[in-house]
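Hey, I'm writing a tutorial for new members on how sequence and structure tokens pair up, and I'd like a real worked example in the thread rather than a made-up one. If someone can provide the structure for the chain below, I'll link this post from the tutorial.
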Amino acid sequence: MTDVQTKPGETAEQAQRAFRKVRLCRVISDKMEKTVVVEFQDLKSHPLYKKVLKHRVRFKAHDESNACKVGDLVRIMETRPISKEKRWRVVEIVEKAR
């Protein structure tokens, strides 16, 4: 196994999960069973011209309880491959859509 330094009161599994990527995304589609499509927006600067551009990435995330609806703000975490395109899972719904 790998040597992972843990804090007091923390298990090795919790320390390992600290290295997983976590993103704050907006749900754009919930038409599949136990799957939502989320969009992550980031501002990136062009390497040569320095213009600030919106960089958008879409992920398919696993939603076990089918609780997410279009427009919700959710926190997703990287996980093992669940299907051909799903490598993320919904951790929590931060803000419900109006």
